[in-house]
Specification:
alpha/beta, 3 domains, 17 helices, about 40% helix, about 10% strand, globular, disordered N terminus, binds pyridoxal-5'-phosphate
């Protein structure tokens, strides 16, 4: 029997608060439970698994001994470690109540598609995801115009119509589609018809729909490197072959993309404010990208996630504004301007794709919640939305300046942060050779979120660093966070 991987265990996450051995234990256990590792399967040796996963020998040995102790694995003298022939009792109780009365035979494993989804690099519940300085992408919740929101909510709930209470359209609530189309035309240079706007459950759903509707398993898809991990997850969850393409000062390096996979079916980009490096894609590069898409019949997914927040410099309209022939799927979200649990975002798609996207959306959750959409439509058309954005721009510019000032004063030589003209986070650069994952964990130990830059890369990062959000934290919180970071970086 060869010692190759029996199931794709994915990459263990060093930044997680969960120890590596525990992660491995959980993945093996889940694979046994899901039937990917049927009873009697021989496992690779600890040495082979150690090399495969790039972890220490103890990590594998500890995971194995836990699984042995719980009865998931058994050893046979001289021939190695096997999945136990009988599953332990607690499994029976775990499956218990909901499965009582079902056939006693072993469950079928997940579908191929299910397995691809599970294996996609997820957005794990890392320690630094908690809301505390400097977890990125967090709006200033305390400054939301909650009274206005409540008043608009009450307006729709006072005597809710059948339209608010009944089933809605998969593409979204008509007045909201109009409000979004008007807003995008006025503010982002995206002149679109409301009929092209699809209201989605945040941009994550837009990325998932785009990947599922436009890609076949095995299709190559360019992804910025570094990139938003949720985009990687959506594309690989759809079975795409990810082609990481480097970012330079002008944005995604189209020439490199063409060298690596000119026949890719899709490119994921964040041209207004590259996530996470913050570069703005130059006009020349935008045109080059559009030319490539046109020449190869490829789609461009434009993630315009935080374009509302530009503090200095010229505002470039969205790439979609240059798209004369309908290659660009434009994606935006209300998570950053308002709040993420609202779960409302939008996509603008070419006319002839609207029905396909509507069908895919309807399959999973029919349509977005109507009352929230109605409130948001009023919030935009009554002018509260633009007013809130204008107000937040001033607050966020100030918060960025405060972060830079405190880092400059306290962390000289340890961390370098450059001002950014836009967005909700800055990059903190660590000295060459520093281990940003270990330092991120040290920050987490001091109560500070400092996601390691290397986590956003598929390839080798140019420099170690942190992605530091500042928008959700006031001056005392920033001051405290920087002090704690100082203790973590120079203990
Ligand atoms: C670049 C980028 N795109 C998309 C999203 C997804 O946001 P949501 O699904 O909440 O709209 C995020 C959230 O962090 C992001 O940073």
């Amino acid at each position: 029997m060869d010692e190759g991987p029996l199931v794709d265990l994915g990459r263990l996450t060093r930044t997680s608060a969960t120890p590596l051995y525990r992660q491995l234990y959980e993945r093996l256990r889940a694979s046994i439970l899901a039937g990917h590792l049927p009873p009697g399967t021989r496992l690779p040796s600890t040495r082979a698994l150690q090399a495969e996963l790039g972890v220490g020998r103890n990590t594998v040995a500890d995971a194995f001994s836990q699984l042995l102790a719980e009865g998931y694995l058994e050893t046979r003298k001289g021939s190695g470690t096997y999945v136990a022939r009988t599953i332990p009792d607690d499994l029976v109780t775990l499956r218990g109540a909901s499965e009582r009365g079902r056939s006693p035979h072993r469950r079928r494993p997940l579908s191929e598609r299910g397995r691809v989804i599970v294996a996609a690099p997820s957005m794990p519940d890392l320690e630094w995801r908690k809301r505390r300085p400097f977890y990125p992408g967090v709006p200033a919740y305390e400054l939301l115009p909650i009274d206005t929101w409540r008043r608009l909510m009450a307006r729709h709930w006072r005597r809710p119509s059948a339209g608010v209470l009944g089933y809605g359209a998969p593409v979204g609530y008509e007045p909201l589609r109009h409000a979004i189309a008007q807003h995008l035309t006025a503010v982002r240079g995206v002149s679109c018809d409301p009929g092209q706007v699809i209201v989605v459950a945040g941009s994550q759903q837009a990325l998932d729909l785009a990947a599922r509707v436009l890609l076949d398993a095995g299709d190559a898809a360019w992804i910025e490197d570094p990139a938003f991990p949720g985009a990687r997850a959506a594309l690989s969850g759809a079975g795409a072959r990810l082609v990481p393409v480097r970012i330079d000062d002008d944005g995604i390096d189209v020439a490199e993309g063409e060298r690596l996979a000119s026949d890719a079916r899709l490119a994921y980009v964040s041209p207004s404010h590259q996530y996470p490096l913050g570069k703005t894609m130059s006009v020349a590069r935008r045109l080059e990208l559009l030319r490539w898409a046109e020449a190869h019949g490829a789609w461009i997914v434009e993630d315009d996630y935080d374009s509302e927040f530009r503090y200095r410099g010229r505002v470039l309209p969205a790439l979609k504004g240059l798209d004369e022939h309908g290659w660009v799927i434009y994606v935006g979200t209300f998570s950053k301007v308002l709040f993420p649990s609202l779960r409302l975002g939008y996509m603008v798609v070419p006319d002839d794709l609207v029905d396909a996207f509507a069908a895919a959306r309807a399959l999973s959750d029919r349509h977005p919640p109507t009352a929230e959409q109605a409130v948001l439509a009023d919030f935009i058309t009554d002018g509260h939305f633009l007013r809130h954005i204008r107000r937040m721009r001033l607050v966020y510019a100030e918060r960025q300046a405060v972060l830079l000032e405190h880092v400059g004063k306290r962390l000289g030589g340890l961390l370098e942060v450059e001002a950014d003209e836009a967005g909700m986070h800055v990059i903190g650069r660590l000295p060459q050779g520093a281990d940003d994952v270990a330092l991120s964990l040290a920050c987490a130990g001091r109560g500070v979120s400092a996601p390691p830059l290397s986590h956003y890369y598929m390839g080798e990062p140019a420099q170690p660093g942190f992605v530091l959000g500042y928008t959700g934290y006031d001056e005392p919180a920033i001051n405290w966070g920087v002090r704690m970071m100082g203790h973590a970086l120079a203990p």
